[in-house]
Amino acid sequence: GAGVSQSPSNKVTEKGKDVELRCDPISGHTALYWYRQSLGQGLEFLIYFQGNSAPDKSGLPSDRFSAERTGGSVSTLTIQRTQQEDSAVYLCASSFEAHRAYEQYFGPGTRLTVT
Amino acid sequence: AQSVSQHNHHVILSEAASLELGCNYSYGGTVNLFWYVQYPGQHLQLLLKYFSGDPLVKGIKGFEAEFIKSKFSFNLRKPSVQWSDTAEYFCAVRGNAGNMLTFGGGTRLMVKP
């Protein structure tokens, strides 16, 4: 079946611009996670959604970062006023539920470059 | 806060050599432990996972890992590596504090044919 998909695969933007990154989870998965993979910081958790519950935003690095999930499916990660340190690969993952018993499946990522 | 350390950043082996990649975590409670692999140009894939029970876990492609609670370790092993095992390997932990994964810094493995 279809896996987690993300778009765009690559995004180059100028410093100060806003960007939106999209994630389509596996159908039927109620939990959705965003991570960031960057040089020097490795893989970091950003935010996760579980059903209609309030998202866990504890990993967002600043208030320039926000995410929403519409209809319990597609999610958009928005970065406002991008900075060069935002350059990274942004990964989305989904799981059947946000429960320890269920593994997370990762998408291919969006490579963001801020010039 | 939980953290994960992978001590080997780069490993170079010849085909048929044995592999052991170290992973240590710091978290006092019950944990789930994972090894993910990222082949060149591909996305993260799960190699194996430990939730409970037998501390020796077998995964795909001949990989295994042993959970040693007293050492807070979850080392990845493979008796005989192949060129196709060239990839980056990530250890991850999930504790009780939330459902997110905390990853180690990764180990780049290069297997020479």
Task: Describe the protein.
- The complex is a heterodimer of chains A (115) and B (113).
- Chain A has strands at 5-7, 10-13, 19-24, 31-38, 42-50, 65-69, 75-79, 88-95, 105-106, 110-114.
- Chain A has 115 residues and is mainly beta.
- In chain A, strands 2, 4, 5, 8, 9 and 10 form a six-stranded mixed β-sheet that branches. A four-stranded antiparallel β-sheet of chain A has the order 1-3-7-6, with no helix packed on it.
- In chain A, strand 6 and strand 7 form a beta hairpin.
- Chain B is mainly β and 113 residues long.
- Chain B is globular and about 45 Å long.
- In chain B, strands 2, 5, 6, 10, 11 and 12 form a six-stranded mixed β-sheet that branches. A four-stranded antiparallel β-sheet of chain B has the order 3-9-8-7, with no helix packed on it. Chain B has a two-stranded antiparallel ribbon with strand order 1-4.
- The mean pLDDT of chain B is 93.
- Chain B has strands at residues 3-5, 10-14, 19-21, 24-26, 32-38, 45-50, 56-58, 64-68, 73-78, 87-94, 102-103, 107-112.
- Chain B contains no helices and twelve strands.
- The interface between A and B is medium-sized, with 26 and 22 residues.
